[in-house]
Amino acid sequence: MNSRQRRGVILLLLSVLCALGAFAGVLSVISDVESKVGPEVTAYRLAKNVPAYRTLDESVVEKTAIPERWLPDTAITDLDDIDGKIATNPLKKGSLLQSDMVTDQPELRRGEQEIAIMIDAATGVAGKIRPGSRVNIYATFRDKEENEVSKVIVDNARVIDVGKLTSISREREDERVDRESEAVPITFALGTLDAQRVAFAESFAVNVRLALVAPGGEAAIPEDERTYTLTGDK
Fold it and tell me: The pTM is what?
């Protein structure tokens, strides 16, 4: 073996040693990263914006993989944990879904029943009524003499669900034409008599309005304040 061949063999050995050193370095980096990151677990994030108090289901979330050591204790990793839950606040797309973002839907109590009516968005408390809110329900009626009277038909009604804004068409008797408007289905938990009052008002009242009751202001409205007429106010 001449000197040129010896130099070639030495260079080849050096190249092999360098390659082995680089490979060992890569393995060391990978091992270090894995030791810091650890195994990944499946979590869920919002696939779209979700308004407050809307029911959650699989259609609004998507899977994501997160290192277990970086996963918050409140992160939801099982979709069964959102079954029957609603959003406590507006949820933004891309946010990691956590247990403090959801809550149970309000439930009926003994003697209560659900009743839902469409409330005109212009005459309701737009955007402020939510499950758990307390509202007074006002209805305006017109008698045979075309006199109008406003009545509190139910006070402190408990809201258990707020639906989506929906376009509706209603015929106004005074105009004899259909008018397009937007309404929101509101579901209440009421006793039998109050549910009948609400159903009657939706069917026969000229208008039905909701008034949001402030927390701590749930006292019953006195009987002499439950009916109003313009004539009686003069």
Answer: 0.57
